[in-house]
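Input chain follows. Return structure tokens only.
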Amino acid sequence: MTVKTENKSKAVAVVLAAVFSIVSYAQGNVFEGRRLLESGNVPEAQVVLRNVLERDGSNAQALLLYARTLNTQSALKVYDSLASNESVEMSVRAQAYRLMGDYSFAKGDTERAAEMYRESSRCGEELFMRHRWALSTALSADTAGAERIWSDLSKEYRDRVSKSAVLYLARLKMQRGDYTAAHNLLSQIAKPSSDSPLKAPLLVSRLQCAYALDLTDDILETGSQIKSLGDYLESRDQHTVIEGLSTDSVFAVQVGAFGVKENALRLKEQLGDVSDEIVILETATGDGVIYRVRVGTFFSRKEAQLFSEKTLSTAGFTGSVVQK
């Protein structure tokens, strides 16, 4: 009886060791595949991740990363299959929905982007997905729906996402001419740090409200804060009206354009600390496909220019303002 028990224990130990070995191999190679992708070495990443999938085709993390080595249409099919599979872990499904949303947003299909970002947020993706959901919803002309999402975000959290939500809520009020409500919202936001990408648009919005409401003290105070950022705005332009929420007045900053996708992916990774919103837009030309790396969504050309001149330049990058 003791021998049988010992043999059974040894058999279980062998099985567990084998399982542990397989799991360790997969985890290690998925990590290596991610590292290679982040360094821009797409061909080697593809080989490593393909090896993982040949051993375990159900490894969702490996499949999600492997899709990044494929052409756009093939990658979208993979993302769709992962997102719609309820047996896949929620974090992977959230990422898949987000990537489909990014693609739709870059192509200008804001309704589809809003749908994908909504599903991503429901699967537990980062809070910023709810902000993207609201932004895409607003650009689809559903400002009431966007206002509800931003209102929830502004009340539930007190981080950068919350501040962004308050800023966009205020802009909606300004678009309707309700500068008092917009000013009250903007006054709730604590003074952002000088290196915050929100500082310039917050100050410009507050200054526009102050001019509209003839708040002399606020005009002087906010104007002084803007000057402390640098001489971005000439005094005659400080009351420039921010454009309405329409696709004709939405801008981004283009940081690079490449004929090789790997180079665009490498730049996207390098820009990760600068912005949460980076997309690669593929454009077919007579000489082949051009991969354009664009950062941010701005509702005025001036705001985009400020971001380029301050935030990007401080991080060592240069960019040009383009219309989305």
